[in-house]
Predict the structure of DNA-binding transcriptional regulator, XRE-family HTH domain.
Amino acid sequence: MKYSVYENIRKIRELKNLTREFVAAELKMSTSGYGKIERGDVDLTVSKLIEISKVLEVSIEFIFKFDVSIFFNETSR
């Protein structure tokens, strides 16, 4: 399984129905600059990761461990 904090940030944002524009504005950065973070085109600093976690209203640990499949896997009863 491929592990990517950048992909997790994008997936969490999308599941919360937040736009890139909104998150970028909250972080006081350009939309294109924020897009580079989600694509993994730039290195993510710890301080920026903290800011992103606050905007997304999740913990940093949640971002690292996030697995979108937990929302869609069905268990048999």
